[in-house]
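To close the section, here is one more complete example, presented without commentary so you can practise reading it yourself. The ligand is aspartic acid.
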Amino acid sequence: MPLLVMKFGGTSVADLDRIKNAAAKVKREVDRGYNVIVIVSAMSGKTNELVNWVEQTSPLFDAREYDAIVSSGENVTAGLMALTLQEMSVPARSWQGWQVPINTTSAHSSARFVSIPRENLDTKFDEGMRVAVVAGFQGVSPEGRITTLGRGGSDTTAVAFAAAFEAERCDIYTDVDGVYTTDPRISQKARKLDKIAFEEMLELASLGAKVLQTRSVELAMRYNVRLRVLSSFEDTDETSGTLVCGEDELMESKVVSGVAYSRDEAKMTLVTVEDRPGIASAIFGPLADAGVNVDMIVQNISERDYEGHAGAVTDMTFSCPINQVARAQKAMEDAKAAGKIGYDDLVIDTDVAKVSVVGIGMRSHAGVAAMMFKALSAENVNIKVISTSEIKISVLIDRKYMELAVQALHDAFELEKAV
Ligand code: ADP
Ligand code: ASP
Ligand code: MG
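Output:
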């Protein structure tokens, strides 16, 4: 029998009525002749509550217990979804990660898939089960402990199952009806895209568009999974939503196809660092060892004078996620205390946000950066750090201008208009 993977996010299973609504969508596919693997998130807000409980109980928590606790929200929705389907006369069974088993690495709270053996589910499908409801976001480590895949990880569970079971499609049901040119919560002019290339979606996701977890897009790209984002609150059919697909399936595309933002950024500057070969390595080595995900980097001539410094000096600025600031600061202070680096000051700015424009058309078009900077300057938004890659340009700005910047860029690149 043909197989579909259908994933329902937190808002789509937020209460019993919504679970019923989602189950009705599943039943419709079963009636059409599909076997279905349903991946569920925890009810919306549940995972945050669980994370909170962990942090209140133990600020420097044991990562194994964190995973045991925060994975539990999905267990509840998986069981409820299976029961709801049974009430609709659909043969359904729930599966927790370890029961499948979903084998992952033992990197707790950011585990990666190792394998998803098909045998257990296939046997039950052969015996007449029509729907396997699998708890998203979780797996089991080689040591037999529960793991989780990082926030938003149920998307990745869904794509991994679609790849492992060679599903016809992987449908991600959420609270918006597709992928938009930017977050529809930030810009009313955001336009739904019918299709988006894997590479663009990958950039948008990794630059902050949380509609899909970055890893899910990576996996879909690698295994060529037909990945679709659509609304769980509307009537949908095969043509609904946004298809994330290979570039060859796009008819034509704009130079810039989307604007992403990330609020949770911080900027740190080491002031008056000695300017010598090896200094970058002496700074970023300890940051990497401390697990800090450094994003943007700039090195510039120090504003401070040379007084008291024997040689040339420079300022080194980098950005990282705001929740890693304490770790980054400690790594720098320790490196300084150990005599590995010297600096006068460590300036920390936690009121910044990153705004990015993304588009595969940038590969062949010049002038996108100039246009972006012009649009921001017209709104008097000061750019603090810039970084570019082949298909994206990102800037770090004051957080209070973030929404304004997203809207200005959406206007400047005329994203509200179709190609
Ligand atoms: P779920 O709980 O279903 O996993 P998420 O909250 O993780 O849903 O993701 C959906 C949200 O992603 C939307 O409500 C929307 O605010 C946000 N989002 C950010 N950028 C985009 C974008 N470019 N297109 C669509 N949604 C976006
Ligand atoms: N419930 C988890 C989270 O909130 C995983 C998910 O919903 O994708 O991050
Ligand atoms: Mg999500």
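Once you have examined the tokens, check your reading against these statements. The two ends are 39 Å apart (CA to CA). The longest strand covers residues 258-274.
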